[in-house]
């Protein structure tokens, strides 16, 4: 995982060796690597991509935090790909705040153009 939490619950996001400059992202020609559980549809489809792949991964992380389980646990990468491309939604627990549930759904949208951004 790329999230570090210290004893005071301060959170740091990190990425060891997989960072790319935004200018490189705009070319959309680089190869990707990542954990299938958090991968956006455009990565599975080998399409060009931008920072919206991080928004998709963020939505998956939010789901993991509220559901308290690992998404697609035990599935093979090919099965995860199939579920993501079919836009199979991760079931958000009923007790989840509606705004958080909506944010998860919006971040995990199949079309990157409909996902929110971090700005």
Automatic annotation (TrEMBL):
Protein name per its UniProtKB record: Protein kinase domain-containing protein
Q: Where is the Protein kinase domain?
A: 1-119
**Chain ranges passing through the membrane:** none
A Gene Ontology molecular function term for this protein is: protein tyrosine kinase activity
Superkingdom field: Eukaryota
Q: Which organism is it from?
A: Euplotes harpa
Q: Name one GO biological process term.
A: signal transduction
Family matches, as InterPro entries: Kinase-like_dom_sf (IPR011009), Prot_kinase_dom (IPR000719), Ser-Thr/Tyr_kinase_cat_dom (IPR001245), Ser_Thr_protein_kinase (IPR050167), Tyr_kinase_cat_dom (IPR020635)
The GO cellular component terms are: cytoplasm
């Amino acid at each position: 995982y790329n999230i570090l939490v210290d004893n005071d619950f301060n959170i740091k996001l990190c990425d060891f060796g997989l960072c790319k400059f935004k200018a490189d992202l705009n070319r959309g020609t680089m190869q990707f690597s990542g954990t299938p559980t958090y991968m956006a549809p455009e990565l599975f489809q080998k399409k060009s991509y931008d920072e919206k792949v991080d928004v998709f991964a963020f939505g998956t992380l939010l789901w993991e935090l509220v559901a308290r389980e690992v998404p697609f646990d035990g599935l093979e990468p090919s099965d995860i790909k199939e579920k993501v491309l079919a836009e199979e939604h991760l079931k958000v627990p009923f007790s989840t705040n509606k705004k958080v549930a909506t944010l998860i759904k919006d971040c995990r949208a199949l079309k990157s153009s409909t996902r929110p951004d971090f700005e």
